[in-house]
Amino acid sequence: MFERLQEAADRQADRLLMRVIHRLAKAETPKGVDIEPLDDGVSLSGSGLKRRMIDDARLRNFGR
Fold it and tell me: For the chain, how are helix, strand and coil distributed in percent, rounded to 5?
């Protein structure tokens, strides 16, 4: 009964998710940190990233 409504809501949620992913992928990051957009989020990579996430506030608050 509500299948069409659910499908429309799912499509809208997917569009919103992709907008957020693309916004995050275009965000400015410190030198040496790369961002890769994925279907369900973004991937950060770089040398010493674990330690840099602790030390650098820009990386700790990346998704906000």
Answer: 55, 20, 30
Neighbouring residues of 57: CB distance < 8 A, sequence distance ≥ 6 = none
CA distance 58 to 9: 33
Q: List pLDDT tens digits, range 12-25.
A: 999 999 999 998 88
Q: pTM of the entire structure? A: 0.68
The gap from C-alpha 59 to its chain's centroid, in whole angstroms, comes to 12
Token couple for 17: 């998710």
Assess contact for 30 and 56: CB atoms under 8 A.
Answer: yes
| 1-32 as b/e: b if 16+ CB within 10 A | eeeeeeeeeeeeeeeeeeeebeeeeeeeeeee
